[in-house]
Write the structure tokens for this entry.
Amino acid sequence: MLYGGQTARFLLWEHRMDLAALRRNYESIGQSHVFRFWDQLSPPSQQKLAAQLEAYDPAFLKQVINEYVVNKPRIALPAKIEPVDAYPRTPQTPEQKKLYADAEQRGLQLLDQGKVAAFLVAGGQGTRLGYDGPKGEFPVTPIRNKPLFQVFAEQLIAWSRISGRTIPWYIMTSDANDLRTRTFFGQHDFFGLNPADVFFFQQGMMPAFSMDGKLLLGEKDSLALSPDGHGGSLRALFKSGALADMRKRGIEHLSYFQVDNPIVHCIDPLFLGLHDLTGSEMSSKTISKAHALEKVGNFCVGDGVLQVIEYSDLSDDLARQTNPDGSLRFNAGSIAIHALRVSFIERLNEGSSLKLPWHRAEKKVPYMDEAGNTVRPDKPNAVKLEQFVFDAIPLARNAIVYTTDRAEEFSPVKNAEGADSPPTCRRDQIRRAARWLSEAGVEVPWTGDEPDCTLEISPLFAPTAFELKRKQLPARIAAGSTACFE
């Protein structure tokens, strides 16, 4: 099985090499130092290091070191960059109104037929939130303090009830949090889901390199390894057997989302239907940027091809360009919400490698020095390589972008305080709940722009504003009160 980028690859060998051959291969690319502590290791530790080294083809390592480590690749931006023509949140023409109506019905039909699964990228830790454990365990709702995992699970249960069909859930963990995540689900009885319909698998790993191209040892018996990026999720789906499981179940589409955004619509029939009816292999949601230089990727059409250009690569001049009405010309922010065809992911994994480019990042990586001491650098000392899922968009047929609303669907928890923190996320959950209730005819107290109450709506009660309108609700919410709908 081959693993790598557009020009680089490495081989995951299915058999053990003999030690002499393994040494020769790494010596041939100037990496013999990885065996520096071999004679000090116990047999299990020797086996651990050998298994890691066998996972990589030295020819691949030599190539990526040359292309991405000792040389910094130049970011080749398209010669012509234009704004994307995204589908609006609400239809603007009679033709669009019909398309959206048909799309919503098609999305519901796909759910009824059991052709949709959810795909959660959940490899992150809660370190930046001050939480010692998987980010998905972090308590996030305003009243019940439900963890992120539970919020998503309840959405899937709700939509399974609405459609009458189980929605399988594929969850990508990491080496750092896989066991803890599985244990957490078990301790909470999978939040009401059938364990047979929850498929855990681990993200792939890549070695870190010193600035001069040497493999770093994180321990005497281990390379310094880090996750291979959210783009690697598309390879991990294939390697883990998740794609094969989808085929057995008749799954045709995946709803992709990331673990830090509790107000994401894990299942969106309109979006899924639009994705299907347009023949798109990969569809994406966008929001209007908060300001010109917001640190989100930008959906653009580069040399005629839909793609995401990172905020750090789009020039400030382009980012600040405005339309005649004063709105930003490049205003389609990427928020990591996608729909993908299973057949597309299979096609990306055909042949020798996952067909995505690698991205270089300079980071502070602890490592073992020649004397066997752990060095914790105070400035970037290493290069990590990652692949990004949005780089699959240019490879997809008929890729589309659909506009959603920030207040409705994007309030991530990334930082302990300030922007994108637990307080701002809880605020946004309360605001959305107040808006949903108001639209359903409930009198909600406000003080200025903020609800004068604390609200929480469980997805089991209503996963959308439309479903909330079907429920029996109070006439009003008292000022200063706390109300939880579940």
